[in-house]
Amino acid sequence: MADTGQQRIVPVVLCGGTGSRLWPLSREGFPKQFWPLLSQHSMLQETANRAVGPSFASLLVIANQDHRFLVAEQLREARIENPRIVLEPTARNSAPAIAAAALLAHEEDTQSVLWLMPADAAIADTAAMHAALGKAAEAARAGRIVTFGMKPTAPETGYGYIEAGEPLEGLEGVAAVARFVEKPDAGTAARFLAGGQHLWNSGMFVATAATLLAELERLAPDLLAAVRGAVEGATRDLDFIRLDPAAFARAPDISIDYAVMEKTSHAAVVPADIGWSDVGSWAALWEVSSKDAAGNATQGPVELYQARNCYVRTEGILTGVVGLEDAVVVVTDDAVLAMHRDRAQDVKKLLEQLKAANRKEATEHRRMYRPWGHYEGLIKGDRFQVKKISVKPGAKLSLQKHFHRAEHWVVVAGTAIVERDAERIMLRENESIYLPLGCVHRMENPGMIPLTLIEVQSGSYLGEDDIVRFEDTYGRA
Description:
Keywords: Coiled coil, GTP-binding, Isomerase, Nucleotide-binding, Nucleotidyltransferase, Transferase
Helix content: 10-25%
CATH class of the largest domain: Alpha Beta
Number of domains: 3
Structural class: alpha/beta
CATH architecture of the largest domain: Alpha-Beta Complex
Protein name: mannose-1-phosphate guanylyltransferase
Organism: Teichococcus rhizosphaerae
Number of strands: 30
Domain MannoseP isomerase/GMP-like beta-helix: 307-354
Number of helices: 11
Strand content: 25-35%
CATH topology of the largest domain: Spore Coat Polysaccharide Biosynthesis Protein SpsA, Chain A
CATH superfamily of the largest domain: Spore Coat Polysaccharide Biosynthesis Protein SpsA, Chain A
Radius of gyration: 24 Å
InterPro entries: GMPP_N, Man1P_GuaTrfase/Man6P_Isoase, Man6P_isomerase-2_C, ManC/GMP-like_b-helix, Mannose-6P_isomerase_type2, NTP_transferase_dom, Nucleotide-diphossugar_trans, RmlC-like_jellyroll
């Protein structure tokens, strides 16, 4: 985006979604914004990289506190400088998150222009996005709350729509919003497509902090009061801003569309052709993915025979597809999804069934990420389980003990320093150590390469909550 001489735009990334329609890849513990769906970069990294340059202030990210280290690590990998990461103690939809961003930006500059964007959308043409952003920023400085409307290419029922009104005088390429329309049925979506007056709602907004706060005060005063209390009671934790939990919990669970956009008289829209997709379903991901001559999009070790217009993705296991058309097949290490592409919106219903059945695969991956690295379960029996643990260079686990299990660690790559009660022991490859039930222990990686070890647990109870932490580098209880 060219530097216009105005104050820099504050990019705000809303990173609290779960991407439930992209199960089994996207799950609550590791949702879609952290996955590389279209390139080698995650969706969060791609989003952050669109807001780098002299026209932009430091990135502000509103994220779920459970994902704080994922967010920080991915931004570090993307070389995003000095990001501010604000942690939501509980999920409260987009309106409270946007209120927190507006309050924080307003503290630094009452006329800050915020570019609010979800962390998990695809935009193919960044230059066109920046051109549209310039128009939106001008309208925002004139007191408008601007959204971006995407020209429909199909009668999509998974998106909300915007009916564009009259062009706004003195603001080129900006129109008033006549009305917002919820996700329509197929017939209504077809009429919208044919009529030409309706645009897909991108979920991105541009407004000054002052305008947002004024409209929140007028239309959702209880919400703003709760979030203001959460910001005033916020604490610093490492590189994070933790909103006050009790105050934030009082904010209603509501989207910015319901809280403000559908009620305000300041809504405006910039029609934009930027190659946008919310990548909200497997069908949407197929649409924006590269395809072979038969219309198939694949990821991972996939072999196809007489398949057409399919999306097939595997996270490691060789996956063969024969004779299918318009199908989606997604394979992870603990779950498989197979369906017709036309049923992509129904994945959410399947996920509800899995949650009702208390299937852990509904929310958790086998690989679990922690600030020091990750672990994954390999084998689980009645009174034992085996895990593979990877610790990043320079990282360490908490000083801890367990009441119900003993552990045996075997180093298979790298070097470990292990504290066991009063001992401090260095382990190299193919060396091991036994940690009896109740001993106080810790492991760290002093080396320059990842530390990999196999952990064998044995005992009467093997749950992750059997842990007492005495000291933790990452501020966990």
